[in-house]
Amino acid sequence: MDPRPLHVPDVEWEVARPFWEGCRQRELRMPRCVCGAYIWYPEPRCPTCRSDRITWVPVSGRATLFTWTTVYRTFVPGHSARVPYVTGIVELTEDAKLRLATFLVGVEGVKLALGLPLRVDFQRIENDVVLPVFRPA
């Protein structure tokens, strides 16, 4: 059994490395093409204009709740200490196509609803891995 609390993402994947570096610095960064389109999930070329001139830019960290679920039983080894927990998809305010799957934290006693305003926070799960999580704004 895997002893890690989470399945750790590939933080060394060249295309997404700026995302994970930003998280370690407590800054949410998204890839943006020279044409102005945000690109999520990271790709080496823009799906809108096919340019490879993509830079990573800081975003506000503000979002709204798109969907969520409460997990009462986990199938991830080493993850059972977290249950129950809430995961969701959040929509960043910069662009409706910027949707991130994430943990929702600080939601105990909060009535979750579509469009609930959220803000990014960060949780270190391993030495080099810091996850963006979202909490009510």
What fraction of residues sit in β-strands? 35-45%
Mean pLDDT: 89
Name the shape in a single word. globular
Biggest sheet details: 5 strands, antiparallel
Instruction: Enumerate how many helices there are, as a single number.
Output: 1
Structure description:
The chain is mostly beta strands. It has one domain. Helices cover 6% and strands 38% of the residues. It contains one helix and seven strands. It has one helix at residues 17-24; strands at 29-33, 54-58, 62-71, 85-92, 99-104, 117-126, 129-136. The strands form two sheets. Strands 5-4-3-6-7 form a five-stranded antiparallel β-sheet, with helices on one face. A hairpin with a 6-residue loop joins β4 and β5. The longest helix has 8 residues, at 17-24. It is globular. The termini are far apart. The model has no long low-confidence stretch (mean pLDDT 89).
